Amino acid sequence: MAKIHGFKFVLVLVLSILINLFFLFNHFVDKDTELSWSKAAAREAELVASISCSGHGRAYLDGIPFQGEPICECNSCYGGKDCSEVLTECLADADSGDPLFLEPFWMQHAASSAVVVAGWHRMSYRFDDYSSISEELEKHIRQLHAVIGNAVTDGRFILFGAGSTQLLNAALFGLSLDDSPSPANIVASIPFYPLYEAQTKYFNSMEFKWQGDASLWKNRSDSSGTFVEFVTSPNNPDGRLMKQVLKGPSSKTIFDHAYYWPHFSAIQTAADEDLMIFTLSKLTGHAGEPIWFQLILTFLVMYQGYTLIIKERKAMWALVRDENIYKRMQMYISLSTKSVSRDTQLRALKLLKVVLKENGKDLFEFGPKTMRNRWERISRSFSTSKRFSLQKLEPQYCNYFQNFTGPSPAYAWIKCERAKDQDCNAVLKTASIIGRGGSTFNAESRYVRLSLIKSQDDFDLLIQNIDALVSKEGGVAYI
Amino acid sequence: MAKIHGFKFVLVLVLSILINLFFLFNHFVDKDTELSWSKAAAREAELVASISCSGHGRAYLDGIPFQGEPICECNSCYGGKDCSEVLTECLADADSGDPLFLEPFWMQHAASSAVVVAGWHRMSYRFDDYSSISEELEKHIRQLHAVIGNAVTDGRFILFGAGSTQLLNAALFGLSLDDSPSPANIVASIPFYPLYEAQTKYFNSMEFKWQGDASLWKNRSDSSGTFVEFVTSPNNPDGRLMKQVLKGPSSKTIFDHAYYWPHFSAIQTAADEDLMIFTLSKLTGHAGEPIWFQLILTFLVMYQGYTLIIKERKAMWALVRDENIYKRMQMYISLSTKSVSRDTQLRALKLLKVVLKENGKDLFEFGPKTMRNRWERISRSFSTSKRFSLQKLEPQYCNYFQNFTGPSPAYAWIKCERAKDQDCNAVLKTASIIGRGGSTFNAESRYVRLSLIKSQDDFDLLIQNIDALVSKEGGVAYI
To answer: Which residues belong to any copy of the Alliinase EGF-like domain (chains A, B) (predicted)?
Structure first.
């Protein structure tokens, strides 16, 4: 009996010691990978991220705390402490091009996309390679274009800028600062992105002059001077792939390829132009458009005599073939605001690494699918309508997917078909929908741009209000 | 015997179980604070930070990896895999204003200054308060000025910009965009920061025109139009506190207070001007001056006909009294590059929180002490010299320290006293010292600016070369 007891005892003891050893081993293995100075920041970030905002909002590290605690910032049309309340009489805002449709993707890829910035990270601007863009970042951008096949980077300089305006301006200065006695003429094809006109006019430089619609200058004489044409392809607002209108030795082109990613367009060919501009914001969804610009709009209209709506694209780059133009652009960037901050570059690099995993498989499964679904959904909403029409877009062969892909534009370009609906934006507003009127893009006010790239909450409300509007059509007299 | 055995057995077992319980408890308590998605990024950052570069270099997260591993980027005049090799025939570069003297401070405050940026952090630019600067950041900036006592923020708007050039330009546009038919005249007092002239000329705007030295316009007539004067105080290069030269209703002033922090100057009074510009970079030491600008200098001289050296100040703000001027500046920022990136704002906020701890006690113990020591050291080096003189600076009463404090300027402003040493920069260069020539600041070439705010390695080498130069004086004939 005592022997059996003893045996059991030994068994339990051995077991207990084994468990001890297991814990001890674990403890030391853990020790090895334990964090020191970064732990507090990591905890703080995870704490803020863990705050529940009911899926209709988010708490941020730099949010305004309430009683010392970070609080939820709710999506439009949601309110309450945890964003669970649906606000009534709320407008569906489809105005801005804030690419929040990719937010869920980054939340799914939290671990690979987080960045820890040490307090002493890159305090100096000095790079060992003396360039404005870290060599690593440049390498990843070239790799990105190669993987997607949307641009040729061989024999191109890469210039990194802090925003669309900066880089577009740099291009303008780069191309127009000739020894030519007369200012360069700046043009674009209607409908076009309003910033081109606004900034050309605002800087009021002796080097260049805004000349409006490109097609008016097709048959110009040689003595008309240098022309610089802005071409956005795929186009904002209507998503069409564009070519330049003006040709010949005296005309230069700035290609804005902000939307030439698999999310928004089939990749039909690798762009091979002299001066091309791309942005990370429409690829990864980081950056949007500060709403306060809309608030100063009234002031701008009063003060400058033209309307202006501005878009931000935080991290952008230009691919430039000519070295002299590249150097002039570099000079402009240095004078206007200097290179992109190191924090932004560090984050951009991390995001690109996630994008490039398995040749973009994850992101380009999520992004194009989301955008295609939204296009199909809004097409269905308008399919029964005779009052409104959507732009026509056909499936195209995409080299990236090696397959035909359905349309997935960033914006719907709506036309009001009824003769009396001349102000289409006003018509939509009666149905609590906020779009961006055609006149902003120098087109007829019969057109309105609706953003399809905002958050799912925004899109759902937009569809709800469109459906309500279209369903009423039967009851309204057709004129 | 068996009983004793049994007793010992029980004792060991109880002990073992207790240890298990301890580990188990620990495990669950740890569980509570264990990290999930941020862990990988935190580990990566700590791994890079732990790479030893012998105190003469640093490895960075976005550095160019060698065989997949991050590598050391060495300080100037150091080389080798771990930066332990001293490079011979290396120049002491005291040219740039890269404020690396604060790097050790941030390494000492690693835990409180690190930031974790989640992949989905602030993808949208939307702020609930619709302003360009997060409310939290603005609050901390006001608090900062209150604690230091270097500026009045009551009744001021705060505008945040991405760099000195941007904000200074914004100020220029803000003040000169009147309905006035003639362009505004832009002036500054010699010696002045060369960017003012360079950017005014470069933008070649119809709104303003560079007119050089302010003192030439003291007795102007009323019909000379609007004047905008740049005043840097403390002055760059010579560290003196400055006032505007031009007065009267037709003159406006932009006060550049980049160096008005306890590191570089006694805080004699809270600045109370209409338009004041401050920067984080000279306060926290984050940001410097990209060296590649120097490389394109040759190009600039060739192309534009003037020399240009540019400084970057990553996160800046302006305190503006007049709402209309504030709005015009805001418009300029929106057109030239848009608001500061959210990553930069987030980091700025974190750094400010560290700065503000105990009313700035830690930072303003480290910073002013370091700068004062360097000034005393370089003064000692030149004290026996008859060939070179330093600018004269007196101890002043500082409201922040509530005491008299010795000089601690950011730059030494050296004068070559010998008649034949007209090009002082060339003289220093023979002693392997690189300074910035007086002509850059529109002063005589008999002057040279030497930067005192770079890393300790840079400063030590500078002193070593100065001492060698001064010790040779006896042997050289005095002319």
So the answer is: 36-90
